[in-house]
Amino acid sequence: KDNWVEWEEIIALRNRLEKKYLKAGITIRGIKKLSLVEKKDIFFEYQYYLMLCLHTYIKPVRCEYGEMIVCKNKYFDGLEDDEKERNVYLLNDMRSRKQIIFGKYSRKNPMKKNLIVDLPDKLCKVINIFMDLRNDIYGWRCHDTHPLILKKSKKNLTIYLMSKNGYSKNLGNFFKKHLNKKIGAFMLRTIWTSYYRRGEVSLKEKLE
Length: 208
Prior knowledge:
With 208 residues, the chain is of the alpha+beta class. The protein has helices spanning 7-23, 36-56, 73-77, 81-86, 121-138, 164-179, 185-196, 203-207, and strands at residues 69-71, 88-91, 99-102, 115-118.
């Protein structure tokens, strides 16, 4: 209970950070004016904001985004079914339209089939800004097979995928910093579920 917040507080945090980055010029056009040093300074901070957006613009999941791969549709179509079913992919052919595909075995509870999620415009824009920063800093291409979320090393190099445990720890640190609450991916899902089930008849009442 000490770490509980309402979903409205989570969205309010996202809105505050959105205004902060707009004011700082962290936009598609604005980041082109930043020096390489300035881009490096903001990169991992903006990654936390991206993580928040991934969990709030669409239905929150656990920590699967930590191992999500960015790729083109053509690359995804050429994968074996086993790879498609075990992993999570961000299809990034277009800047204005993107999809996340959760393989049916990529989540803790297996699904009957792969889950395809169309991303809203605002989330696409946040991803575009983040990837533009990433590409400028590390020289990566927009349509590659690198991870989206990156692991920060002591030398500020990003070589490996962030593990699910690492993702969970980073998400928890983010909420501790901004809300002074210990909120992980599981609790965030619980907060979301509570918000969207307000007004429903409880299970106890249904059984009576």
